[in-house]
């Protein structure tokens, strides 16, 4: 079961990606950019949140170093 912290951070990442990409499809964002924008310093927590968001279908991974919003992720970001 995912921790509350991971779920919260995953939702925060998804919302920020919605803002950063303006909701555009197939817009890949490097993980380093996300970490910098949200001032994330705990790489293990970030990795866990990204894995959770990918597992839930909110994000798609591209080469392991970049992520993009899915349709489900755009819906979560709008809530």
Structural account:
It is a single chain. With 79 residues, the chain is an alpha+beta fold. It is 59% helix and 13% strand. It contains four helices and three strands. The chain has helices spanning 4-21, 31-38, 43-55, 71-78, and strands at 29-30, 59-62, 66-69. Strands 1-3-2 form a three-stranded antiparallel β-sheet. Helix 1 crosses helix 3. The chain is globular, with a radius of gyration of 11 Å. It starts with a helix and ends with a helix.
Salient structural properties:
79 residues; alpha+beta; 4 helices; 3 strands
List the helices and strands and how they pair.
Layout: H1 4-21, E1 29-30, H2 31-38, H3 43-55, E2 59-62, E3 66-69, H4 71-78
Antiparallel strand pairs: 1-3, 2-3
Helix pairs in contact: 1-3, 1-4
Strand content: 5-15%
Give the overall average pLDDT. Answer: 93
Largest sheet: spatial strand order? 1-3-2
Structural class: alpha+beta
Percent of residues in helices = 55-70%
Kindly summarize this structure in a few lines:
By secondary structure, the chain is an alpha+beta fold.
């Amino acid at each position: 079961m995912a921790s509350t912290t991971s779920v919260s951070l995953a939702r925060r990442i998804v919302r920020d990606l919605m803002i950063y990409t303006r909701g555009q499809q197939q817009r890949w964002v490097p993980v380093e950019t996300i970490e910098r924008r949200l001032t994330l310093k705990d790489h293990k927590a970030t990795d866990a949140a990204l894995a959770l968001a990918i597992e839930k279908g909110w994000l798609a991974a591209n080469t392991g170093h970049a992520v993009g919003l899915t349709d489900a992720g755009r819906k979560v970001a709008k809530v």
